[in-house]
Model the fold of this input.
Amino acid sequence: MSGIVYDKIALIGIGLIGSSLARVIRQKGLAREISIATRSAETLETARKLGLGDSYSTSSAAAVTDADLVIVSVPVGASGAVAKEIAGSLKPGATLTDVGSTKASVIAQMEPHVPEGVHFIPGHPLAGTEHSGPEAGFPELFENKWCIFTPLPGTDEAALAKLTEFWEACGSQVDIMDKAHHDKVLAIVSHLPHIIAYNIVGTADDLETVTESEVIKYSASGFRDFTRLAASDPTMWRDVCLHNKDAILEMLSRFSEDLASLQRAIRWGDGDKLFDLFTHTRHVRRSIIEAGQDTAAPDFGRVPKKD
Amino acid sequence: MSGIVYDKIALIGIGLIGSSLARVIRQKGLAREISIATRSAETLETARKLGLGDSYSTSSAAAVTDADLVIVSVPVGASGAVAKEIAGSLKPGATLTDVGSTKASVIAQMEPHVPEGVHFIPGHPLAGTEHSGPEAGFPELFENKWCIFTPLPGTDEAALAKLTEFWEACGSQVDIMDKAHHDKVLAIVSHLPHIIAYNIVGTADDLETVTESEVIKYSASGFRDFTRLAASDPTMWRDVCLHNKDAILEMLSRFSEDLASLQRAIRWGDGDKLFDLFTHTRHVRRSIIEAGQDTAAPDFGRVPKKD
Done:
């Protein structure tokens, strides 16, 4: 289908994203060799059993040796430590990228360790599911998804073009963005929704007047839509919150301000204000459907198939 | 499939719920005759064109004449006016029910008008989609959904049994609940999620630093999950907010309190607290899947089918 883009690719971290990368690289033949590293011996053993790569190591430095492309897929809080560990073993001319959901922090953590002659191109594939770990990956994860690069000034054009070719071969569409803007955009389209989802599930779980079994039994009336996001990987999301703090706090403040105003309208029975807001939000949904980001088919949550 | 449960059923209001009822009653032969009333001549004409009933009127009083079951499917704020209008035309021995999302308010509005000898049994099918109007209905809407009754003290057993038989024939499972408890349960499983969804979509739409087209383009990373709820019928949701005020304000206060605490953890970098919350919420999702309320298949929003 596609052809070799890099001779050897090293995958540092082999969770949902890393293991999906391993699978699509193998499926489309994008590399001659895949080396895999993860800190946990248990996770590494799982990756080995799944046959995700050609070599396996708990040492990131060992895995990156001779690699033409290194993809770091770890919780964003671990980026600096990984960069430090692999710095001395990176091949001159190699490309180093990551998949982190926050970019300013990852750049601040990794850039100081990147040796002269290595092309560091920060990246973020907007792809994932609510499952995590090496078993959760699948080769189609990146299909029709966006991958955003936030290149540093003076980035090598050829290296950038090759990394673009790689992600396009994985099925994604590549976008270029400034790191600060990336962090603001993601704060509103991804980070805030996840935080709100975690929060509402937590609130529901703490009620004395409504039991958990009632919440679960009647969850199809709206609540269920939030629980999927709130089942996402806790380590990843802790790190996102800690490493995109400013943009997230800004979005949270605005959200809370708007919610206070909505709450006031409910308390004082301001029906016109409620109606205006509830009408106004409809056009956003319409635009999302028009942009092909969701289907217009009616849906009240997914109904499990009957056996 | 099923048989006649009521000779004549009057449907007051012919939106998503009313028109879905018309379709399932016809499909399963649950009545000999369906009369339809709605205030809007235009909506009535649409219902007529769709062939949803046997007779059509803009007068609710006319439609309920001789009806054995009257189902009021209007925004909850209009319940009182409808009850007043039909009171003098209800057949002795008839059953009067509704489908409103709030029960204490609907009962307070309707009960005073219900004549002696008419069985008023408040009901709430937990079913709907983000679409509205007579064209949006379909006969399977109530399949495998809950329908909650909040009967008044002294409710006639036979009338309740017959209404139960009717909803079961529509495919639903019937539950009995106290009206105040119903309003609290729905406030957390349905009303709060919708309000939060409307609010976050509103917040995103108001940003100066991130454009609307960016929000839409990258919406698959979490935001999209909220937009479906935020596309629901504005009139219905305005009325829900105004008529379940106390329970909604209670849930909103708790949600905001929890969110302030979460925001503080982000601001002060309390990773352990974030990790605990994000881990804790996972079991709710697991329980929902175990209860058959959603599937475990990974999903990152629905992907539109390619042509």
About this structure: Residues 299-307 of chain B have pLDDT under 50 and may be disordered. Chain B touches chain A through 109 residues (CB under 8 Å). Residues 181-290 of chain B form a domain with the 6-phosphogluconate dehydrogenase C-terminal fold fold (CATH 1.10.3660.10). The longest strand of chain B covers residues 6-12.
